[in-house]
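User: Sequence in, structure out. Go.
Assistant: Echoing your sequence, followed by the structure tokens.
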Amino acid sequence: MEGFTYTNIFETKALEYLIIVFFFALLVPFWMILNKKNKPAVKLKSAPGFITADSLKLPQGIFFSRFHTWTYLEKTGEAKVGLDDMLLHLTGEVAIEHFREAGEETRRGEALARIHYNGNSLQIISPVSGKICKVNEMVSENPGLVKDDPYRQGWIYTLKPDNWKADTDSCYLADDAIQWAKEELVRVKDFLAVSSMKMMQEPAGIVMQDGGELVEQALTRFPQEVWQEFQEKFLS
């Protein structure tokens, strides 16, 4: 027949193209299924649960004391006081027991409150001296506020400071607070590593990986004796 041309695909590269197209048609769905299965594992791996200096909240303008409490002077002249983020990472969500009431006087270094976790407790020390103005009862009713928002809704007292400048001279601010936090994390790691060897067969508060990072709520893995020693070394 005139005008009709027969092409044998076996004598050209057309068959090779068909095979390649067919191969990719099978590969794409397989790749999508495989990638979908791997997504949860990738997400889980991205949440290590370690306490590092980068994971800590250290807002600028807030004074941090070596007692692991913080204070901030408001425009009203009242100073808010609360627990720092490092302590809350070590203990997790804690119940608050207030020691003081509005109108009472407190001195820097005196106990303001106690935190509780599963039968263990720590006393919270005041970073400044002054007269108690307000008690944040919300943190007693909703302890999660302290852990989730320690520097705003999670404060525990406001007080009228007696000697703000002298009391805060020994506190850490801005870059000094960041450097102190890094050094303090090393101290805590060493302390819990030694405590692990004293109290248990295997280390419980330290993950011996990449230099031994602190795990979240590391202190909750230890008995009250270790909490008491932690009080003496880090909060008193």
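User: And one key feature?
Assistant: The helical segments are 14-45, 85-91, 138-141, 144-148, 164-168, 175-199, 224-235.
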